[in-house]
Amino acid sequence: MMTERRKRREWTLLAVVVLFWFAQYVYIPYQTPFLTGKGVAAGMIGTVVGAYGVTQMIFRLPVGVMADWAGRHRIFVSAGAALAALASMVRLLAPGGMGFLVANLIGGCASSMWISYMVLFSEYFSAQEQQKATSRVIMACNLGMCLGFVFSSLLYARTGMAFLCASGMAAGLLGLLISLGVREADENTGTEKRKRGSRYGKKEKGRVRQLLQICGNRRLILFSCLALIQQGIQMSTAMSFTTQRLEVLGASSLYIGLASVFYMIAAVVSAQFASTSLCEKRGARFYVPVVFALTGLYCVLVPLTGSRMLIFLLQAFPGMSTGILLSYLTSESMKEVPEDKKSTAMGFFQAVYAVGMTGFPAAAGALTERWNMTAGFGFLAVAAFAGLGISCWYYRREGKSGARQRN
């Protein structure tokens, strides 16, 4: 009975996750081509794309601290869905560069609540199942994005951007309605989860400084910086300038949409793979460097090739980055975090990678506008290979340390 109830609550939260990310990303495949068609400069487009990360940099850590302090996540889940609907409404009412800029700032506020989605879902699982939990909730996230991309690919040419934004608003409102049925972990499991409202909610009052001390954890800082690189590249390429590259090569709006759909299918499949025991056999030590290497190769090839089909197939690489790499970077960053500080740590992790989501698209857009697209992608390739080098160094150092301890 308890297991059935827990499963029901898990699926309720996953449904909200899917609707939330559908609302946040249904317009993404056509954002850059749409704004380019409106006469918006490449530098401004980079700023619009990067604006999505600005509010996340500001709010994600405070949201994490508040969630740990209050001991409740449900209100943040509902707030995220409501803000996602509001962002889509702004795009609908002001379909231009400035309107999209404001909407992306609001959308960033919505995504700041993603902390509570992830932490709450992870609390439905035991400590030994945290990698599985992380991969499952990221898979649901990717599924929502994928459905949004499929939806927009099929309908954009016929209906335009306004219909996509209206659909995003509807999905956000439906997610808000369903979120009213989401329950905290301690309300529906018989395991020894922390009693968030009674135990930690009261205990942590006036102890914000103690919560923030976790932000000095070296492992958390390292993997947050690696996620900064991963998210910055993803936001600059598959979510932005890769679609512009396809447009330059003469791809139709349907083709651009299908390329984005293929990217998200790869993300969903790879996130599911990351939750399996087969993937866990090699683990983070193998997959983190490998996927960084493939991401760097992607950034080198996209601006150099003149083949639309090759770019289409290369979309599998950022899909693996979104599915496998982000799953491992998230779970690896949380390994040394106490349960009662997990929201704060997740807030720090996501605030740091939001720097990449903001800075990388702006930098790539500025380089593209000043020189060409090859320069913008070249910057991203250097960042990817830096991630490869840092991760190899870390796991080699960790392996040597483990060997010394065994001896």
UniProtKB/TrEMBL annotation:
Q: Which Gene3D superfamilies match?
A: MFS general substrate transporter like domains (1.20.1250.20)
Topology relative to the lipid bilayer, per the entry, is: Multi-pass membrane protein
Q: Name one GO molecular function term.
A: transmembrane transporter activity
Example GO CC term: the record gives: plasma membrane
Q: Which UniProt keywords apply?
A: Cell membrane, Membrane, Transmembrane, Transmembrane helix, Transport
Membrane-spanning regions, if any?
12-28, 40-63, 75-94, 100-125, 137-155, 161-182, 220-241, 253-274, 286-304, 310-330, 351-368, 374-395
The answer to whether keyword Isomerase applies is no
The protein's location, in the record's own words, is: Cell membrane
Which Pfam families does the UniProt record give? MFS_1 (PF07690)
Indicate what this protein is called per its UniProt record.
MFS transporter
